[in-house]
Amino acid sequence: MRIGVQLGYSGGFKEAVGHLVELERVGIDVVAVAEAYSFDAISQLGYLAAKTSRVELLTGVLPIYTRTPALLAMTAAGLDYVSDGRFALGIGTSGPQVIEGFHGVPFDAPLGRTREVVEICRSVWRRERLDYDGKHYQLPLPADRGTGLGKPLKLINHPVRTRIPISIAALGPKNVELTAEIADGWQPVFFYPERAADVWGEALEAGAAKRDPALGPLDVIVGASLAIGDDVEDRLQWAKPQLALYIGGMGAKGRNFYHNLATRYGFGEVADRIQELYLAGRKAEAIAAVPDDLVRHTSLIGPRGLIAERLAAYAEAGVTTLLVGPLTADPGESLRYVEELRALLPG
């Protein structure tokens, strides 16, 4: 199992990068940078490429609606170049609140667009001329075909790699099935190892049955809050604001994928209550309504023995890359958490 860290997008990025250099020294394998309605992930990853030498750099994730497929491919090739082949492209659909509310772009056809984006990116990296006639993307535009504007183009530069890994953030059954079919990796959110098979098992199996063997095994990339020790029970509370935000506030009723996931985990009544409170502006109450049990099963918080058990559960559920977010304001303690986690890895 690979170990990585997730860098937050709410501020303090330059300070976090200085700490990341120390984490690279103790052996982390991956660093992921998210993109929401924040600073963009790409400029930060370019900065990381210059400050690091070994870790894989991952977008966790870029929404497919906010850039054209060709620009996603160009950006990935550029980051792969400046990092000497250390970049991995994480993409996802995000949700209507961000895509429509912040970007003003219709949130439509997530499955079809995801498949076509992946196909176009891989074509660009192979330096093929973009003559693509999809349902959602046509390159060149049909009206330009046969004209001087309609000449298919290919990437000018030669990419470091013609196959940059693509992971997809997916939660719904059809999107997870698509991911297991076409992607190099899968990035689920709020992963509950003991219930993952019940929620996603059929979708993963259906996608795997159609998977090209040349893709290799699916890299299951999971995030988890981290605090190791006999006196870290209070850190359960630290993890609740993010859960409350996503379950309660990332979308309207009926259009919140994270609320749906919590419901599928068996927390339907609690998820409804969190959403009701959050959308009413009662955020502190929404945070308090997040149950300890949900936090415990979607994070790594507790004494060393418990963490070892949780790591075994993640491994049993098929997790191959674990991205942790240390719950501490002390860089030294964060470093210790990651070192202890590496020492506890099974096998």
From TrEMBL:
Keywords: Oxidoreductase. Its EC number is 1.-.-.-. Coiled coil: none annotated. One of its GO terms (molecular function) is oxidoreductase activity. InterPro entries: F420-G6PD/mer (IPR050564), F420_OxRdatse_Rv3520c_pred (IPR019951), Luciferase-like_dom (IPR011251), Luciferase-like_sf (IPR036661). Gene3D superfamilies: Luciferase-like domain. The keyword Lyase does not apply. It is an enzyme of class 1 (oxidoreductase). This is LLM class F420-dependent oxidoreductase. It comes from [Mycobacterium] kokjensenii. The lineage of its organism: Bacteria, Bacillati, Actinomycetota, Actinomycetes, Mycobacteriales.
